[in-house]
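Worked problem 6 (solution included).
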Amino acid sequence: MEIYPAKCLGCRYNIRDEHTVLDHPSEQLQLYYIQDARHVVGNCTLWWAIDANGYTCDLDKAGLFDEEFIKTLRENTDIPYPQKAVERAVVRHVRIESLRQIKG
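Solution. The predicted structure is:
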């Protein structure tokens, strides 16, 4: 059972804490991550954060937005991507500074 990692602005539910996609009013609800295409951090994409409260490279801290919210976007640098497509593009890696901290 998949639990969304952020708040759906198009409904009254906090998806992370209160329900899964199966409990959502529309099981077919299409959700989107929104890229801020003005900036890239290293080689990482910059996403709108949860509740459209800033930006993040961490997909677990990125917001998910419904089609109604997407229709309100006005900047051509705010690019919506379907949730499932973005999650298929995730690459898992270890940062070198993390390893250096382990070595001491």
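Discussion: Strands lie at 31-41, 44-48, 55-56, 65-66, 78-82.
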